[in-house]
Design a protein that fits this description.
4-stranded parallel β-sheet; binds pyridoxal-5'-phosphate; 11 helices; Aspartate Aminotransferase, domain 2; 3-stranded antiparallel β-sheet
Length: 346
């Protein structure tokens, strides 16, 4: 247990927080963070002894759960051997083995991998590759991007330029960012025809279309038909990104379609959402007794699915063409007693 400072917080929290800038937060209003001293599976252990279920998977980065024995053993073994070398003229076996395995999972002639360290940087890399691809073909004017209202692609400068310019988090930078072509996600036939016209009109200046396939995550779990992707793909210019967000799914969707993180894995489970959704409920979501039941159900499902996926990879049984599992079901009504709602910890 960490040493307690004044008011029951550990010393490191009160003395260190004064020197920290948080992402996406107004520092004068931001509450002191919750001190975490351990993590296992979907659960976080707090400095005061309580436990939380991490329903957002550490901002959707711990897709296999915390402290996964397979991941932990692989990281420890690699740290002993070679922690890291740059890819500029050097290589290690795991890097190339992973690239080859990922390439094997991709469809068609997609058989190369470029590694990056975050979602935003991967978007920057994808955008840069698209522009360079056209330069290499002698078309230097193709450096704009078509992106969609309610889209979110990250927090670095080029990635910000393809996020929703009005409803998103980057409105302040509107006049500064490169101006992209922002479209509505084409859902109806009319919108689809309009979208094709837009692509044709801008075809000599567009480097790529960027879209979160099937669901816009951070912009509000907004779903669209696979037809939208076909239209984008037909232009031969597409860059695809993917995300999911458990909280927003609970808030907005009648049926929560859950996707796993395995490459090529598709729909994993459909949960009938029993929560009422209206304006007042939006602000009150965390007080609803069923909220934690549904959320825990989804989180446990994702963690279990990730473990099964991991085992399939180890056993060599993973088949990206197989639809993993479709299991309609109602979430349990009573939240487990030991789960502490985040709001009550302040
Ligand atoms: C679709 C999508 N692209 C890019 C990003 C940015 O990822 P990161 O926060 O790792 O930079 C996110 C983050 O939520 C995302 O949802």
């Amino acid at each position: 247990m960490a040493e307690a400072g004044p008011g029951g917080s550990p010393d490191w929290l009160t003395s260190g927080f004064a020197h920290l800038w948080l992402p996406y937060a107004q520092m004068k209003l931001a509450p002191t963070p919750i001190a975490v001293v351990g993590a296992d599976g979907a659960r976080l252990k707090l400095a005061d002894g309580r436990e939380l279920i991490d329903g957002v998977s550490s901002w959707w980065t711990t897709c296999h759960g915390y402290n996964h024995p397979h991941v932990r053993a692989a990281v420890a073994a690699q740290l002993q051997a070679v922690p890291h070398v740059m890819l500029g003229g050097l290589a290690t076996e795991p890097t190339l083995r992973l690239a080859k395995r990922l390439a094997g999972l991709l469809p068609g002639d997609l058989d190369h991998v470029f590694f990056s360290e975050s979602g935003s940087v991967s978007v920057e890399i994808g955008m840069k590759m698209a522009v360079q691809c056209w330069i290499n073909r002698g078309q230097t004017g193709r450096h704009r991007f078509v992106s969609f209202r309610f889209g979110y692609h990250g927090d670095t400068l080029a990635a910000m330029s393809v996020c929703d310019p009005d409803e998103g988090m980057h409105g302040l930078f509107k006049g500064y960012l490169p101006r992209q072509i922002i479209a509505d996600v084409p859902r109806t036939q009319e919108q689809q025809a309009e979208f094709v016209r837009l692509l044709r009109a801008h075809r000599n200046e567009v480097a790529a279309v960027i879209i979160e396939p099937l669901v816009q995550g951070a912009g509000g779990m907004k779903f669209h038909e696979p037809e939208v992707l076909r239209i984008c793909a037909d232009t031969n210019q597409t860059v695809f990104m993917i995300t999911h967000d458990v909280d927003e799914a609970i808030l907005l969707a009648d049926k929560i379609v859950l996707m796993t993180n395995g490459p090529g894995a598709k729909i994993a489970e459909i949960v009938v959402n029993t929560m009422p959704r209206n304006e007042r409920h939006r602000n009150d979501l965390h007080r609803h007794p069923q909220y934690y039941a549904i959320r825990n159900h989804l989180v446990e499902f994702l963690v279990n699915r990730s473990k099964a996926f991991d085992q399939e990879i180890v056993d060599g049984n993973y088949d990206p063409r197989r639809l993993k599992l479709v299991k309609p079901g109602l979430a349990a009504v009573n939240p487990p007693a030991e789960v502490v709602p985040l709001r009550q910890t302040h």
